[in-house]
Amino acid sequence: MTCRDEVLTAAREIAGRKGVNKFSPQEVVDHMWRSGSRYKESTIRTHVTSRMCRNAPKYHATKYDDFERVDYGTYRLVRTQARRDREPSDMPHRPPSRAELIIQAERMLLEAPQFRSLCRGRRYKLISVDARAGNLHVLFKSGRTRRLAVDDIIAILKELYIVRTMPRNYFRSPEKSLRVLGRSYWHAPGAALLAILPRLDSDVRVDRQCGLFLAS
Q1: What does residue 124 show for φ and ψ, rounded to 5 degrees?
Q2: What distance in Å separates the CA atoms of residue 136 and residue 138, rounded to the nearest whole number?
């Protein structure tokens, strides 16, 4: 891997673990060295603070818009660029397509429609799949039926494939909810929306803190 590739991977994993899209050059250095990187500290820092930072002075012939400096010693991932770098051709493991998700949901409906929340508290039941409209209808224990949009499932899976880990309160942040789902609030079916992901994508697992992570 190039130094840029390793720095991008480290930044995404740091942001995913913290649940906040902010990191320092030292955090990237420490993360890469723990992962066995061969690159020198000075090389890593140059990539974070200059070569890969879109609002840094242009000192290099080749420059990338991967990061943005938001404060002294603090940077963030520019998500549109991060997504473009990982989609679609060079992503080693891609999230399921819309058609694949619908097929898996239909299989789940026939074989084992019941599922539980990430912390195993609430119970849900998938009761119908509307392939044309792209909606899954889920029955809650209260007797109410909620609609889960396949487009929301796809958006969350794409985000998970980038950040690799997703705490269960990930979308309590209005910024994350707006960026990923196009709205600044996390609506009522949210728990079921996250809980159904491991049933639709076998690469998605639940960790000990009731969050999600990518196994592959």
Answers
A1: -135, 165
A2: 6
C-alpha–C-alpha distance, residues 4 and 47, integer Å: 7
Rg (CA), the chain: 19
Give the pairing type, strands 165-166 and 145-149.
unpaired
Q: How far apart are the C-alpha atoms of 98 and 125, rounded to whole Å?
A: 21
Same domain, 49 and 102: no
Q: How many domains does the chain have?
A: 2
Structural domain including 7 reads: 3-86
- 3-class DSSP state of 4: helix
> 12-33 pLDDT, tens per residue?
888 877 778 899 999 999 999 9
The alpha carbon dihedral of 216, 150, 167, 67 has a sign of positive
Name the DSSP letter for residue 63.
-
Which of 26, 52, 86 terminates a domain? The answer is 86
45 lies in some domain: yes
Residues 208 and 136 in one domain: yes
Tell me what pLDDT residue 79 has. 57
Q: Is 57 exposed, middle or buried (0-12, 13-18, 19+ CB in 10 A)?
A: exposed
pTM over 0.85: no
Q: What are phi and psi of 30, to 5 degrees?
A: -60, -45
Indicate whether 75 and 166 sit together in one domain.
Answer: no
